[in-house]
Amino acid sequence: MKKTHLIAGLLTWITLSNYLKLLEPRTLLLSVVATIFPDFDIKFKHRALFHNIFATLISTAIVFLYFGTLGAIFFALAYFSHLLLDSLTKAGVSILYPISKRRYGFRLFRNGSLFDKFLFLSFTVAFTLLFIKRFSSVKFTEFLKEILLP
Ligand SMILES: [Zn+2]
Q1: Which of 40, 84, 114, 142 has the most CB atoms lying inside 10 A of its own CB?
Q2: The predicted structure's pLDDT at residue 88
Q3: How far apart are the CA of 51 and the centre of ligand 1, in A?
Q4: Cα–Cα distances in Å, from 149 out to 10, 24, 135?
Q5: Residue 59: pLDDT above 90?
Q6: What's the CA-to-centroid distance between 18 and ligand 1, angstroms?
Q7: CA 22 / ligand 1 centre spacing (Å)
Q8: Could you tell me how far CA 37 lies from the centroid of its own chain?
Q9: How far does residue 117's CA lie from ligand 1's centre (Å)?
Q10: What is the pLDDT of residues 2-46, one digit of tens each?
Q11: What range defines the domain where residue 114 resides?
Q12: Residue 132: how many CB atoms within 10 A of its CB?
């Protein structure tokens, strides 16, 4: 599921970048962080501590303070993509933690199942197509310069 989360975050990023007609390296970084961050609770209260609406709101507020509205929007959507994907699995997520420990979700498939792999493949194809579309209208060297020379 880890790589499915990552590609879902990248897909969220490129979809929003296409919609807003922009391509900013910091929004890419924030999207990647947002898709990875929730699973840092794996050694504590997994799928609870960082897998709830309160953690989403607090971390998005912190991102807003440092990166502004645009950064917060990208971060929140990527974070939400993580919670949504986890809610599709059999384990579900404690979306209301710490108010309730109950796990909610659509519980459609297991981590690492064939459907998980299908999602990964579908997201990868969609991301690649949207990435090509976005970069066809932006100079790739300018984007690299922004990443490498902040
Ligand atoms: Zn997770």
Answers
A1: 84
A2: 94
A3: 7
A4: 22, 13, 19
A5: yes
A6: 26
A7: 28
A8: 9
A9: 16
A10: 899 999 999 999 999 989 988 899 999 999 999 999 999 888 888
A11: 2-148
A12: 10
Ligand 1 center to 102 CA (angstroms): 15
CA of 119 to the centre of ligand 1 (A): 15
Q: How many domains does the chain have?
A: 1
Helix axes 2-20, 53-88, angle to 10 degrees: 110
Tell me which residue has tokens 């504590």: 44
Question: 3-state class of 136 per DSSP?
Answer: coil
92 contacts 85 by C-beta, under 8 angstroms: no
pTM greater than the 0.85 cutoff: yes
Q: How far is the CA of 7 from the centre of ligand 1 (A)?
A: 14
Query: How many whole angstroms from 143 Cα to the centroid of ligand 1?
Result: 30
Q: Distance between CA atoms of 8 and 67, rounded to whole angstroms?
A: 22
SS3 104: strand
User: If you average pLDDT over residues 75-88, what whole number do you get?
Assistant: 96
Rounded to the nearest 10°, the torsion over CA 66, 68, 71, 77 is: 110
Q: Hunting for tokens 């579908």 — which residue is that? A: 122
Query: 19 C-alpha to center of ligand 1: Å?
Result: 26
